[in-house]
Amino acid sequence: MTLDVGILGYRFMGKAHSNALDRLPMFFPDAPATNRDVLVGRNEEALAEAADRLGFDRTATDWSAVVDEVDVFYNLGPNHVHAEPTIAALEAGTPVLCEKPLARTLPEAEEIAAAADDAGVPAGTAFNYRFIPAIQYAKRLIENGEIGEIRHVRGRYLQDWLVDPEAAWSWRNDEELAGSGALGDLGAHTIDLLQFLVGEQAGPIERLSGHCETFVEERPTADGEETRPVTVDDAFSAQLEFADGVMGTIEATRMATGHKNDHTIEIEGSDGALSFSLERLNELEVMRANHRGFETVLVTDESDPYVDAWWPPGHVLGWEHTFVHENYEFLSAAATGTTDALAASNVATVQDGLAVQRVLDAIQASDERGAWVEVQ
Fold first, then answer.
1. Phi, psi at residue 114, to the nearest 5°?
2. Cis peptide before 85 (omega within 30 of 0)
3. Cα–Cα nearest to 371, from 239, 272, 254
4. N or C: fewer beta carbons within 10 Å in the chain?
5. What is the pLDDT of residue 291?
6. Which CATH number goes with the domain that contains 269?
7. What's the total number of domains in the chain?
8. 342-371: pLDDT as tens digits
9. DSSP per position, 70-116
């Protein structure tokens, strides 16, 4: 069986997932066969060029005309086009992988989740950092009890691409288009990873205190002829309380001078600790019971998660490989047509995406109220 794939979006994420589809047959021969059927976008000229470069058979400027013609639909567009196309695809019975955050707002995310429940087909949220071998290795250590009872979790995601106040305005700076700024763009990744790694032991995030800040109130348009207001956060921080008493702190910013893509996760337990940085994604810092300090584990052995499909030990993987792993898991579940197959994989479900959206919404609510709030 060959799955006809439709993708909405041909820039950053469209390129990342198309590259992953190209790699799958070579490195994961048991993955379902795919055909890049249709690429969806608005600009016909740019769309045609992208379809040729990314290997698609055809193009479409109307997503509603194709969601019921493909076997799998990837919604990789900006946040404001997550809800409507995703819901339409699900209503057509088409398995969907939707880019994160699941939606601009909590009500939109709830609508998507309800449509997924009704559809009964695999429906995922694209949190690709779950598929870093070192993250999978960390999850294994936690589940095996090797760091004991979880007490503290800490996450930060630091970028600097908006440090310059003259950096051009984009849809990511607009609340109507994005929903939030660094909070949804970067913080969503951190929230999902923490819940993925410790949720089974710590339970869900129950209450929190959040702070959002916008440092640059307006930015020039790309042509430099005018400025437009920035209506989302540039940065946020939050304190978290998990159901079982675990304490957490998270932050994200797009204005951390000197940091390009620094996503760090730290977890401390009664018998050990773990530390991970995306900028050293093949490594995991591990502190075990009775050890006097951290050891650096290079997660590239063939016994490590996903690594047996790639290179000999020590031949490191990169950011793009996370999408290959994600596509392997999602397409394998989509080929079965069952939600159970997706739930048994590492793919974040739409319900996982909704759980993240509830935390994002609570952080915004806490910032507005200046108080701790419960996660709904």
1. -65, -40
2. no
3. 239
4. N
5. 80
6. 3.30.360.10
7. 2
8. 999 999 999 999 999 999 999 999 999 999
9. SSEEEE-S-GGGSHHHHHHHHHTT--EEEESSS-SSHHHHHHHHHHH
Per the CB < 8 A criterion, the answer to whether 335 and 108 are in contact is: no
Span 333-344, pLDDT tens digits = 999 999 999 999
Q: Tokens in use for 54?
A: 């990314």
For residue 80, what are its two tokens? 């404001």
Number of Cβ atoms within 10 Å of the Cβ of 221: 12
Query: Is 61 within a domain?
Result: yes
pTM beyond 0.90: the answer is yes
Distance CA 190, CA 172 (A): 18
- Of the three residues 85, 111, 129, the one that is the final residue of a domain is 129
pLDDT band at 290; cut points 50, 70, 90 = confident
Q: Residue 33: pLDDT above 90? A: yes
Average pLDDT over residues 40-45: 95
* Cβ partners under 8 Å of residue 162, min gap 6: 216, 234, 254, 255
Count of Cβ atoms closer than 10 Å to residue 331 Cβ? 25
Residue 356 CA to residue 359 CA, distance in Å, equals 5
Domain span at 161: 133-280+282-314
- The pLDDT score that the predictor gives to residue 1 is 85
In a domain, 28, yes or no: yes
Residues 6+ apart with CB under 8 A from 296: 283, 284, 285, 286
Q: What percent of the chain has pLDDT over 70?
A: 100
Structure tokens at 98: 């939707």
| Cα four-point dihedral sign 80, 362, 190, 97 | negative
Per-residue pLDDT tens over the stretch 46-98: 999 999 999 999 999 999 999 999 999 999 999 999 999 999 999 999 999 99
For the domain that residue 103 is a member of, what is the CATH number?
3.40.50.720
Kindly state the average pLDDT of the residues 159-188. 98
User: Are 22 and 125 within one domain?
Assistant: yes
Asked if residue 179 and residue 47 are part of one domain, the reply reads no
E strands, the chain, in order: 2-8, 33-40, 58-60, 72-75, 96-99, 123-126, 150-158, 205-213, 218-220, 227-229, 235-242, 247-253, 262-269, 273-277, 283-287, 295-298, 348-349, 373-374
Q: Residue 106, CB half-sphere, CA atoms under 13 Å: how many? A: 13
Question: 């490989």: which residue's tokens?
Answer: 321
